[in-house]
Fold this sequence. Notes:
Layout: E1 11-12, E2 16-17, H1 29-53, H2 63-88, H3 95-125, H4 134-161
Antiparallel strand pairs: 1-2
Amino acid sequence: MSPEPGNHREENREEGPTPGPGSIPPTSISTLLGWAVAGVVVGWGVHAVCSRVGWVPPLVSWAQPLALLLLAAILGYTAWATHRAVQVRRERLATQHAVNRLLLARASAIVGAFVGAGYLGYAVSWIGDPAELADVRQVRSLVAAVCGLLVAVGGLLLERACRVRTEDD
């Protein structure tokens, strides 16, 4: 059955309601998974390329995971504040502020997935390597991968907080 001419919101059984005109669909899981796969490949490739070229593979310091954790905390707080303003108090954000938060949310979700998976790939590439600092690289890379995942989750939460309720909700 085709939708009515004035009704632009049709139901999709897999993804829920289709956004109407002027709406932006939420970031899809397939998009995040695609960037995560690319991140794993790049993270794994850093170790492989450095070993083949004769360079010393980079050592992950504690600054990288801490920077990601700080970004995740900022995104989490922004998501909470936006949720309270838009969903709980039903305030209307200024258009520019709403767009900025939505762009920050999307970019953070995608970059968090890519960077977190990149650190995961880098950590996995050190499994079984006899190098002196292989264990240090693994542990710090795994911590950074978790922090990257937290950035992605914070971005998704902020994106969800930016949703404006319609009269149907």
